[in-house]
Design goal:
DNA-binding, mainly alpha, 162 residues, homodimer, three-stranded antiparallel β-sheet, Arc Repressor Mutant, subunit A
DNA sequence: TCACAACAATTGAACTCTCAACATAATTGA
DNA sequence: TCAATTATGTTGAGAGTTCAATTGTTGTGA
């Protein structure tokens, strides 16, 4: 739908906006498909699972509350819960009761999980570099940081309001 | 995994690159989740289906070959085939034999499908505007276009090679 | 012309994600 | 103190995606 189909009250995208949106959309569709395919082939897990392992590996004790982990990985609680099920089946993560809140659960990265993460990391970085980072100038790296941060802030503000 | 875990031959991301990648990743995870949720609530379809209808609506005759439609929507053939199944069940799209190639199939947007698309468009544009376009300056809109286009070109070149 | 490769599209199973519903525990405030 | 509210996490069903295998068609080179 374009500006040639006017509907009262709708501000359509102008040509520049349309191009930006399509470029962002298509780049993202293509890249995330490529990323997931590569992660699946090289490391036997989807990218989302890799990010869970990364987040756990960055903490002291390689453990984190489920709710905290969901926020950090930008995941829903339900998605995380299912994902941790799969990761537990593979022995990469274990669940433990939270000592300070009986509702809580801790996700803990096992030594095996850490080894799997370490093995997966190089090819993951290689793909991100090849298709994103190394394609862009240092200036564009800064621009992408600003654009991404701005979008995140807007979405988080929106979240807090409704 | 960071530069603090050196592995021979791997070029890790430096701090600026790391920030850019995380900002892009998280903005995209948050935004596409929000977009899909909104599309599902307001229009009863995932964003990917909306894009299929848009592409069909942009052609003369509201028809396109499956393979062509797959390329334009940055979709796999399999994904598209399943998606068209669902869209056909709802009466928004119909399949027809291709007159020039007996292997081929045409996807055709029905009048009902077009009406559904027209009804869905305003709230779709509103979300894209709210969370992306209206958050960015005209300069950032240009930057995002360039960044996205660069990434697309790299991925397409990679595709042609291997 | 014919065998063989490449192309177009589909299929079904396995997997991931979403959504709503649920169970349990902590917190709030009257 | 205790009922109502809020928070944490899980579950199962339904929906979408992926991957490999399959069918049928077209193109190519000997």
């Amino acid at each position: 739908m374009t500006a040639s189909v006017p509907i009262a009250g709708t501000r359509w995208l102008d040509e520049d906006e349309q191009r930006a949106w399509r470029a962002y959309l298509e780049a993202t569709l293509l890249f995330f498909d490529a990323l997931d395919r590569q992660m699946q082939q090289d490391s036997g897990m989807p990218h989302a699972y890799y990010e869970i392992l990364v987040r756990l590996s960055e903490t002291d004790g390689h453990s984190m509350r489920m709710s905290e982990l969901a926020v950090r990985t930008r995941s829903s609680r339900s998605r995380l819960s299912h994902a941790i099920d799969r990761l537990e089946e593979r022995g990469w993560v274990e669940r433990a009761d939270c000592p300070t809140d009986r509702r809580g659960q801790l996700a803990h990265l096992t030594d095996h999980g850490f080894a799997v993460l370490a093995a997966a990391a190089p090819s993951h970085v290689a793909v991100v570099r090849k298709h994103v980072i190394d394609q862009l100038s240092p200036e564009q790296i800064r621009q992408l940081t600003d654009i991404g941060t701005t979008i995140i802030n807007g979405l988080e503000a929106d979240d807090r309001v409704g």
